[in-house]
Amino acid sequence: MAESGRRVLMIDADAQGNATDTLKRHVGETSAAGLFHPAARIVASGDSGITFAPADSSLTDVDRGSAAAVMTLQQNLAAAAELFDICVIDTPPSLGLRSVACLVAASHVLAPIYLEDYSVKGVKGLLQTVIGVQQRYGREGMTFLGLLPSNFNTKSPRQRTHLEQLLREAGKYVFPGQIVARDGYAEAVAERVPVWSLKRRSAQEAGREIRAVLGKIAERLDEEMTDGA
Q1: Torsion angle of alpha carbons 181, 182, 188, 191, nearest 10°?
Q2: pTM higher than 0.70, yes or no?
């Protein structure tokens, strides 16, 4: 999206900080934890079109703080809306105050899912959480883009069976795309560059794949923005 000229705010709300390590050259003046405090000031930065709010150790304190932070994140993002065309939030894997705040702030939700036993079994709970947040906080306008099968080992009979099960039992909630397990993704993370910028064959295959998925997401967002206008 930044490559197409959009102004992107990226927030790493996951204390593990993987996105922070990968995107640290885009770090802006505001941390992700700071966005859960009232009247946080967000400053657009970077010639790349990306302003990044990094994770740090204080993020875990948010979950132990006041429930008012659930609405605070949304309020801070609304105040900075004129500075950006889109905001992307990397959420923590477990449900807590931060996750709920991100769901409340989000207009769209995409849920990567690993095709393993516990992940597939947790789909019902995930969907119930999204619906529950919508109802409790009046976010019925939130769009669930779907479950995105990720790190999919196409040679694994077990994972292929799980994908078939997922499509059979929750097909209407599955995003039309997959992220296959490829070495190119690991190489891109190690070099901290977009996977499609690497020349190796595995990276090029991964690049075509992920760009197709991201393209579908962008198309969906553009369609809804056009309809809303």
Answers
A1: 110
A2: yes
